[in-house]
């Protein structure tokens, strides 16, 4: 995606009531499955953004949660039974996210569907948007010619010609994209945009962790806005959120993810989809910030997540969040927690640990600096000459340990065979003991400054020729 948008590409926002197919349409228009799709009402909660490009014009497509049309008038309850307060609060947060997205929009797509027809909720949405935002009314679920006859009903919403589409099979989406680009060009956004050809890929940072460890609070603190919903209700974040961000003149892509519980505790359906999508973000990330709740303390699940990240060859930072809530801290408290983490994660002593408070903006800058350092370390490439000079120094101080046999093995060469993550190949006469390979890894980190990135060393053995 573009790393420098100048003043930013225009935003095209999908709005509408619950379960009209906004997320399916979003996925169809960006040509990949980025938003969770489910028949369960309210699956989408946070705004989800992705860069879309059509006929040379990039724009940001925004998916929002299904809500009733925003209104400033107090509503009377339909029944004396009120929903639980936390559910009502969450609904208000989703509505606030949608209102903020509309405010930032250059164009709004009001998504309805032919199966249900024009309902009162659609009419309320039309009243809110009419005359305030340029709006296209999109009639989804027009999957066949029989459904096409239902489109004319939507003229009465007073938003111009309805655009029939089928998000499921793609019918009409090309025409919709053509119309979007035509409208945006009339608004003259083209001079404000640098295309993807002019831009470099941003560094991708994924924020991972267990439910309610403060991942969304951390993201909002970094962005300095209420970009994602923060709630004490577990699993409020249901799907990964890709958000462009700039730090120290470096373009980043931040990914907020759903909280990951132990597999046996994960509910079927939407939560399982969200956890699967969260784990899949590790593959897209350059560096992962694993957020650990200081009040709960590091757990076996944190250990498993850290191992998963490292096994996928990604840079890793451990962020101990909510540190401000730890009472009666002393100069030794950080050391005790650090020692416990090191014991829980043997072999990962190269992973930086930082104690933060997302709520109070404590040490967030230092955390990002560590993440960028991990990315730089992962990209480092050593010349064979530098590695051979390093090898001479190391072998002189500590002779290779034999894994078996009588003689000490002899190391012939050390070379780097890969970057991101760095991988090295040692060629030796005879077997090297695994502890010596670990010793070499530690000395490589110490000598060249590999911090926050996994490195691997493979052994290539040769047998000494014997003269008959």
UniProtKB/TrEMBL annotation:
It comes from the Bacteria. GTP 1 binds at residues 16-23, 63-67, 140-143. CDD domains: EngA1, EngA2. GTP 2 binds at residues 209-216, 256-260, 321-324. NCBIfam families: GTPase_EngA (TIGR03594), small_GTP (TIGR00231). Belongs to the TRAFAC class TrmE-Era-EngA-EngB-Septin-like GTPase superfamily. EngA (Der) GTPase family. Associates with the 50S ribosomal subunit. GTPase that plays an essential role in the late steps of ribosome biogenesis. This is GTPase Der. It comes from Candidatus Uhrbacteria bacterium RIFCSPLOWO2_01_FULL_47_25.
């Amino acid at each position: 995606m573009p790393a420098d948008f100048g003043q930013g590409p225009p935003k095209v926002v999908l709005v509408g009531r619950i379960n009209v197919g906004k997320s399916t349409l979003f996925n169809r228009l960006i040509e990949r499955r980025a938003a969770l799709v489910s028949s369960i009402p309210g699956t989408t909660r946070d705004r989800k953004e992705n860069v879309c490009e059509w006929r040379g014009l990039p724009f940001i497509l925004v998916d929002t949660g299904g809500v009733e049309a925003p209104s400033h008038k107090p509503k009377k309850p339909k029944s004396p039974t009120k929903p639980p307060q936390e559910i009502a609060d969450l609904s208000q947060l989703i509505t606030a996210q949608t209102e903020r997205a509309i405010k930032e929009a250059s164009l709004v797509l009001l998504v309805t569907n032919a199966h249900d027809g024009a309902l009162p909720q659609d009419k309320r949405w039309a009243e809110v948007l009419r005359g305030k935002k340029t709006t296209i009314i999109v009639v989804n679920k027009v999957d066949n010619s029989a459904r096409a006859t239902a489109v004319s009903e939507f003229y009465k919403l007073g938003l111009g010609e309805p655009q029939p589409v089928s998000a499921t099979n793609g019918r009409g989406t090309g025409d919709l994209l053509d119309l979007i680009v035509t409208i945006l060009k009339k608004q003259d956004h083209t001079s404000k945009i640098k295309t993807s050809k002019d831009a470099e890929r941003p560094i991708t940072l994924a924020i991972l962790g267990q439910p309610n460890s403060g991942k969304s609070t951390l993201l909002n603190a970094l962005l300095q806005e209420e970009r994602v919903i923060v709630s004490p209700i577990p699993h409020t974040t249901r799907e990964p959120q890709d958000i462009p961000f700039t730090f120290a003149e470096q373009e980043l892509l931040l990914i907020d993810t759903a909280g990951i519980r132990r597999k046996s505790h994960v509910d079927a359906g939407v939560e399982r989809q969200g956890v699967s999508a969260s784990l899949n973000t590790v593959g897209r990330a350059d560096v992962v910030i694993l957020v650990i709740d200081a009040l709960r303390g590091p757990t076996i699940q944190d250990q498993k997540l850290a191992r998963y990240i490292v096994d996928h060859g990604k840079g890793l930072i451990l962020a101990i969040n909510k540190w401000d809530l730890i009472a009666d801290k002393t100069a030794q408290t950080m050391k005790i927690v650090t020692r416990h983490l090191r014991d829980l994660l043997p072999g990962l002593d190269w992973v930086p640990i930082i104690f933060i408070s997302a709520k109070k903006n404590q040490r967030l800058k230092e955390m990002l600096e560590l993440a960028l350092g991990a990315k730089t370390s992962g990209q480092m490439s050593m010349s064979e000459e530098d590695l051979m000079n390093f090898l001479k120094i190391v072998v002189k101080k500590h002779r290779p340990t034999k894994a078996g046999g009588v003689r000490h093995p002899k190391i012939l060469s050390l070379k780097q065979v890969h970057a991101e993550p760095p991988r090295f190949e040692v060629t030796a006469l005879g077997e090297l003991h695994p502890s010596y390979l670990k010793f070499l890894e530690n000395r490589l980190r110490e000598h060249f400054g590999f911090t926050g990135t996994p490195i691997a060393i493979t052994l290539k053995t040769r047998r000494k020729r014997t003269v008959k």
